[in-house]
Design brief:
By secondary structure, the protein is an alpha+beta fold. It has a domain of about 270 residues: FAD/NAD(P)-binding domain (3-Layer(bba) Sandwich). It has nine helices and 16 strands. The structure holds flavin-adenine dinucleotide. The site of flavin-adenine dinucleotide (FAD) has 34 residues, from β4, α3, α6 and α9.
Length: about 475
């Protein structure tokens, strides 16, 4: 395993992104960490599943089919549960919410969201694992191709301690450096042969998204709701808490050509306090803190953010009943060629060009989101639940932080509009695989960690099967 970081947090975006040369609408704050275990050292432990509609390619939104159906994904999620310490099954029926019947005559679709008591960090998979030879503080910069350009022979790696390049050879290579750097390494490595692979090269970095989200207004309820009402209450379990979010039924989404957006309701207190969590996350995303000894401060902030978030959720559900709910939207987005990661002319210390990002939520995206919100609003009124007062978030209030980087090396059957095949193998390069959310062929609203982990296990199965490596503990 070649790892650019070490045990310390490094959330400095300037090692990865050239902020001056891209074109990002809205906020320019980023959240990730270059360290052993990656960004999961910062995450809040939120797990949400992809819905069945997320897994089908929808031509009108330029998304592609996923390589898994819901049944296969469900069994992979169960294996993920095992690793991250969820010892009771996360039921999809949401049966614990007794007053659920209220929604029987609506097209609102409840989705369960889980927040782990202790967010799992993938660094534990690496620590003390005798089967892994770890090269830390080593940045992969370039993949070297065989003479016929159909396989990788070695990778060039910048050793930060020795300040020199080294080369590492392997039978199989898996690129899992986070969405932005997966794209940087591929574009940089294949630049010399771009004319012989024009389709593939042109698709690397395209169809990028970052899960936009924002506060979109309030609901004035007809009747006050109890503070433990299922619309916004958090339920506690031994290893996690759970709550509901709401989308529209699959039939409604298809009939109305809508993307799979999702809404979360909060009591106004909870909503105000959640902003503190957002603020801390923003700070994490904007501080150019590196491993220069300030990592501990970032780590404290990260832990503080997660703790505040949990306290808020608990207080929010024990407060007085109220007649107003704040509404937060998690938006899906059309896959667009224009939303892309490119190479900047500027380089990081390792010699790998920085990422220049073009991303916007355009008027077509807004139109889709607002049609969704208007159907949702009609449903509330028709069922005497209350009135939704919509306010489109301004650019400063929208997205808050870019931390769910998806797309850029998406899955598809051929290189005309994708980068990897159903086994996550780069088209035409037999021993090169990509792992991580850069392969997502569509986005949905669900936080990505669960699905990243699920697809990674599936890739492990494929590689074990194909290369007949010895069975390991991930089986
Ligand atoms: C504050 C915050 C809160 C979040 N909360 C949630 C949440 O509640 N739920 C959820 O599902 N998701 C959440 N996320 C998102 C989630 O953490 C990420 O989507 C996920 O960790 C991304 O995984 P990845 O494998 O793509 O990349 P990463 O986890 O970033 O891993 C990339 C790895 O590659 C290494 N690397 C980078 N460049 C190189 C190179 N050149 N050579 C060698 N190694 C390299 C990095 O050091 C790192 O170890 C959150 C993210 C943040 C920042």
């Amino acid at each position: 395993m070649v790892e650019a970081g070490d045990d310390n947090l490094d959330s400095n975006p300037l090692n990865v992104i050239d902020i001056s040369s891209g074109n990002i609408a809205g906020d320019l704050k980023f959240g990730f960490s270059q360290q052993i275990g990656g960004s999961s050292n910062l995450w809040a432990g939120g797990l949400a599943k992809m819905d069945s509609i997320d897994l089908i390619g929808r031509r009108e939104f330029n998304s592609k089919d996923w390589p898994v159906d819901q049944a296969e994904l469900e069994s992979l999620y169960k294996r993920v549960d095992h690793y991250i310490g969820i010892n009771q099954s996360i039921s999809d029926e949401c049966s614990e919410w007794s007053d659920f019947d209220v929604l029987k005559h609506t097209i609102l679709d409840p989705r369960k969201m889980v927040v782990l008591n202790t967010p799992y960090s993938t660094s534990v998979l690496v620590a003390d694992n005798a089967n892994i030879k770890l090269f830390k503080n080593c940045s992969a910069t370039r993949l070297q191709l065989s003479a016929d350009n159909t396989s990788i022979t070695k990778i060039e790696v910048y050793d930060q301690a020795q300040k020199q390049n080294i080369f590492i050879s392997a039978k199989v290579y898996i690129l899992a450096a986070g969405t932005l750097t997966n794209v940087r390494i591929l574009l940089h490595s294949l630049r010399g042969i771009r004319d012989s692979i024009p389709n593939l090269y042109n698709n690397i970095g395209r169809y990028f998204s970052t899960h936009p989200k924002g506060n979109v207004g309030i609901i004035r309820l007809d009747k006050p709701l109890a503070s433990d009402h299922f619309l916004f209450a958090m339920r506690k379990h031994s290893t996690y808490s759970s709550r509901l979010q709401f989308g529209l039924s699959e039939k409604t989404l298809i009939q109305n050509q809508l993307l799979n957006h999702c809404l979360r309701f909060d009591s106004p207190f909870n909503h105000r306090a959640t902003r503190i969590f957002d603020y801390i996350k923003n700070l994490l995303g904007s501080l150019p803190i590196t491993r220069s000894g300030k990592g501990a401060l970032v780590e404290t902030l990260a832990n503080l953010g997660v703790s505040v978030y949990k306290v808020i959720d608990n207080i929010g559900t024990s407060g007085r009943s109220g007649k107003t709910l704040a509404v937060r939207a998690y938006f899906d987005q059309s896959a667009s060629l224009e939303n892309r990661i490119k190479l900047s002319d500027r380089k990081s210390q390792s010699g790998l060009p920085l990422a220049a990002i073009d991303w916007r939520f355009n008027e077509d995206d807004w139109e889709n989101a607002e049609k969704f919100l208007s159907i949702f609003s009609d449903q509330l009124r028709a069922n005497d639940l209350g009135e939704f007062l919509y306010k489109r978030p301004g650019s400063g209030e929208f997205t808050a932080i870019h931390s769910h980087f998806m797309g850029g090396t998406r899955i598809g059957p051929a290189s005309d509009d994708s980068v990897v095949d159903n086994n996550l193998n780069v088209h035409g390069i037999r021993n090169l695989y990509v792992s991580g959310p850069s392969v997502f062929p569509g986005y949905g609203y669900a936080n990505p960690f669960y699905t990243i982990a699920a697809l990674s296990l599936r890739l492990g199965d494929h590689i074990n099967e194909k290369y007949k490596f010895a069975p390991n503990k991930f089986q």
